[in-house]
Each structure stands twice: as structure tokens, then as C-alpha cells.
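Support request, please re-run this one:
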Amino acid sequence: MTGNGCAALGPHRRGRGLRRHLAGAGAYTPDGRAIATITLDGCLADCDHQQFSRRRWTVSYVDAATGADLAGPALPVVTGPAVRALGWSGSTLVVVQYEAETDLPSFFDETGATETRHVRVLGLQSGAEPQVLLDPPGMSPPSTSRSS
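Re-run finished. Output below.
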């Protein structure tokens, strides 16, 4: 990303705080005029598994040229440890919804491979519930037996 919009999205810039940040790599709207941001409602630090899993993420928008808040389609709230935007398909924002492992280390990456148990790909459209686009089967634990 380049331009003034990127500068406006830093975690401490323009009063956005630590709870609102770039929605993900696919945050630019299809017309390029706005950037989707996500705002966290829920536990920010020192979360237990239940608090981490109940986090709520709300999409909002900033102007891509100025970084000013901008009205946009109201998309459904997504619950989970983390959400990241992959891109847009027409008026649908496609996101990854993360599910955390049961045992989290004291320092964790909310989208890290060792902290993530499962992911789902969701489609978010105004006026509709999130649509599951992809829900891959879970992984089995590695086998500890060896066959000769």
C-alpha cells in the first residue's frame, strides 16, 4: 500500500488506537476509494481462551486518500480470536476467521500457526449473516506409531 491512506492506518495515528487496524491484505474496496479497517471489541491482552474466542470484530472504512473516517456498507460482526480480509468479490468482503488452540502461550500471535487450531473463509455482505465459503476439515494429530 502506498499513499496517504496507509499513513493514517498506523495503530497510534489519528486516534485509531490499538483496537482498530487495517482489515488485511485485501482491505482496499473494489473501487480503490476506501480501505476497510477492523475494530476489536473484547479482550486485548492477558486473555484466557474463552475471552480470546469471544472477541468481536466490526468492519469500518477510511478514505484511501486522506485516512478520514468514511461511511460504507455495514457488514456483519465476526466473532473469533482474529479476522483478516483477503479481498472483495463484488460487494462481499472475503475474510479469514481464526479459531485458537486451547492452550495459548503467554505471548502469542493471534494468527500464528502454532496458536491457530482452525480457520474458516467467510463472505460478509451488508444485511446478511456471514456466509461460510470454505470450512476445511480439521487436522488429525500426527501419528506416534511407525510402521515397518
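The longest helix spans residues 49-53. The CA atoms of residues 38 and 59 lie 5 Å apart.
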